[in-house]
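S.,

As promised, the zinc ion run. Input:
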Amino acid sequence: MDSYDLVIINGLCVTAADVAPYDIAVKDEKIVLLAPSGSLAKANTKRLIDAEEGYVMPGGIDSHVHLQEPSMFGKGSCADSFESGTRSAIAGGNTTIVAFAPQQKHVDSVLTALADAHALAKDNCYCDYGFHLLVGNPSPTALSEFPRLAQSEGVTSLKIYMTYVALQLRDNEILSVLLAARQNHILTMIHAENGDVLSWLTDQLEAAKLFAPKYHVNSHAPMLESEATNRAIALSSLLANTPILLVHISEPAAALRIRQAQTAGQPIFAETCPQYLFLTRDDLDKPGFEGAKCVCAPPPRDRADQLAIWTGLKNGTFTVLSSDHCPFRFDDAETGKKTSVTQEHPVGRFRHIPNGLPGIETRLPLALSARKLTLTKFVEVSSTNAAKLYGLYPRKGSMIPGVSDADLVVWYPGKKLGEFALTNGMLHHDVDYTPYEGRTIGNWPRYTILRGKVIWDRDGGGIIGEKSFGKFLEREKSSMNEIWETIEEEGPFNVEAL
Ligand code: DUC
Ligand code: ZN
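Predicted complex:
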């Protein structure tokens, strides 16, 4: 009789394709068998988990995570280290994150930036991790390093910004990055907001003595996002349809432009985040400085916009639902949101409030509890598509026997857990608040399993994994929609053909 390391019986297994009752056997870190429910109840195994008909899904993949980064998004610095961020990730059902290796403007090389990120993450991660290069300075050196990034460093995606003084690239720089990325089969993620319009609106608001956190929303009018999204798509088209992924889309006009480009067959992908599904601009309009807790960019918008973003998730406009976990402590005048509070500005100065929210642990429970996505769609946007987009599929984001790592999240069955109000005290990040305090949650990961090992057992010790168990993942090129095969067929970008 075969012997296994772990068997999970009586689970309702959910993948991006199917929902069906199966037992799962795990050996040597891989899923090795899916069998009819109940058939492995007596299997020879080191550990048996009875899922009691709860959902069993591929572990969450959070593909947009900022950890231990220097100050780049206003004053303040990241509250979570790789240790605390990945601890929070696994308690929220994630088994893989893709974080950023930030190359700042004064740094020439992207390989140096990557080495720095490796040094911070190594032996400090509870879950598996990869890096997107964050390109702040597309110097000739940096661009010349792209082949090595993709071919020997396992980094097949990068992110650039159309905003933030510390990171904003001009259109000619964006084109240089896109072209080099295209030549090396690297997927470019773009933060699409018009930074110049943002600066101008910010000055206008300040001239009118409007400093409170809620004016952050006015300074990030939806037009900033739809204009930059349109420009990013235009730049991609100019370079013979170079694939791009527009991150954290918050508003319907940008979503519509993306949808149009997709319908025209362009390789345009998009991401949204829980803050655009669960928060609105009213959350920034709280008494005193409280609204700063929800300051992120782009900002949460209106209720009608939320509904449009849900629709975009359902209809496939958005390929992934990531957290954009970018945590700053609230009550901290040295590194957190309160760096923007002075005697002159007792409710802060929105210009200086660090942009970003914690959300790595709450992404999956909030989205599942909302019950707005089918179960298969939930898995698709929270795990499987991230694996495909970022070159991890089918090792991650799936449950293929003999192929997929045994990365699983097991939820509580039915009403076993019951509804409860979320509090920050329940979370495992290093942040003194959650923007979702008091929200009703209907389910939570009961077990998180990474390569066959239980690392989160909510009723049996909580975090039971070790911070050195998470491995760096060398990623392949994106397998999403065979984008790079299509690009090869189209041939190289040819300026003479324009
Ligand atoms: N948006 C945020 O809110 N924080 C960090 C980066 C970003 O783009
Ligand atoms: Zn961004």
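The first helix runs from residue 82 to 91. The longest strand covers residues 94-103.

- D.
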